Amino acid sequence: xxxxxxxxALACLLMFGLLMLNVNYLQVVRAEDLSSNPLNRRNLxxxxxxxxxxxxxxxxxxxxxxxxxxxxxxxxxxxxxxxIYAPVTGFFAPESERDIERAENRLLDGxxxxxxxxxxxxxxxxxxxxxxxxxxxxxxxxxxxxYRALGASGKKGALVAIEPKTGAILAMVSIPTYDPNLxxxxxxxxxxxAYKKLADDKDQPLLNRAIERTYPPGSTxxxxxxxxxxxxxxxxxxxxxxDAPQRLALPGTTVGxxxxxxxxxxxxxxxxxxALEKSCNTPFGKIGMxxxxxxxxxxxxxxxxxxxxxxxxxxxxASDFGPHEDQAALAQASIGQRxxxxxxxQMAMVAAGIANxxxxxxxxxxxxxxxxxxxxxxxxxxxxxxxxxxxxxxxxLQEMMVNVVSRGTxxxxxxxxxxxxxxxxxxxxxxxxDPHAWFISFAPAEDPKVAxxxxxxxxxxxxxxSGGHTAAPIAKSVxxxxxxx
Length: 485
Fold this sequence. Notes:
Layout: H1 3-29, H2 31-36, H3 42-47, E1 55-57, E2 60-67, E3 75-78, H4 82-89, H5 100-103, H6 105-108, H7 116-124, E4 133-136, H8 140-151, E5 157-162, E6 169-175, H9 188-200, H10 222-232, E7 241-243, E8 247-248, E9 257-258, E10 269-271, H11 272-277, H12 281-291, H13 293-302, H14 327-333, H15 344-355, E11 359-361, E12 366-370, E13 376-379, E14 384-387, H16 391-407, E15 421-427, E16 436-443, E17 450-456, H17 467-483
Parallel strand pairs: 1-4
Antiparallel strand pairs: 1-2, 2-3, 4-12, 5-6, 5-17, 7-10, 8-9, 11-14, 12-13, 15-16, 16-17
Helix pairs in contact: 8-17, 10-12, 10-13, 10-16, 12-14
């Protein structure tokens, strides 16, 4: 090789090397700076150039991409009934997304490996690719009934409804809510302003109270303590008598555990069914101490409490019975107080497990996914999470929960012609503050189609809020919607 040719080859090699260095410098060293530069709008344009798939529930379109006809921001995300379904759909913003929009993002925007064949066909036929459509398990009638009932009169709280036999989530409402349309516009300044206003709101409308916040479950947790007791001895049943003092002495304290309002529970000795019907504290505190921490905590774990992290597919905050402390703390935790903390979804799982003869199904929100041409990509397959209790114990607890509604504290949940089972809860929060109002239920008791848990937060329904007075009527309206009453 002569000299000029060598020099030319060396120069080409040098320039190629410099080019590779520059490419790596831009893509690795300066990538974050360039992508976050407000003058770089390429990523923003690309984000809105994709026709994302629809999010649907039954015959309802919950989210869709609308062609704006413009060159810069081709498709804009719209939520036809945004506030009602926001805790489920979430939003698709210029730089972020949440809830189903985030959990199923790669399917919705068409980049998932599951859509490779569909993309290949579109490429071969020169057809514009679209994202997959995500169909949810939500029952629109139940969702809308819950939104109307829970959102009335300024209430704050959450409701979750589950199909006991499958784990399909039929409703998931969190109040207060927000309008995802305000966060889906391609104008970042407008979206950031709207987001900041929501984030700064003391009522936390962006918080999904159904799965992201835990609360003391109050007396609704007594069904877990009851399950542990029934499982400890198969001779126990609804008519088994237990001690029910007006005030239960607690080891190491001089305060004791009273019944709600300091009332007496029968004549000092009552049946298990009566104790649950009237939601007496003292028998359940005593039962918890007799069983011991390990027994009650193990029973809680069998319902999914404190177990493996849960996703539906959105991540769910961990529920927890509380740490192993002294006997006084155990008595309080056994009636749903102290360090006992539950999400509404978790308490819906408890109700559903009892309804399903002791078998807890894994909750899920996505029913099926189909490509833009309707071809099925995947569909839900119900999965058992755990066996929380024997079928015999479940039947005994079902009977007692029916009595709670028919002649106990949950009379407001009665539905003519339908056998409803339930348990009320009034959970103390802090001294001087109003309690939370809880209710868990399922119906029809003979062949359950829906299990519900709901909470009305402290102070949002008046100072006299209670599970029976405040929460039970809301659950009734949702059960009626599911059952077509």
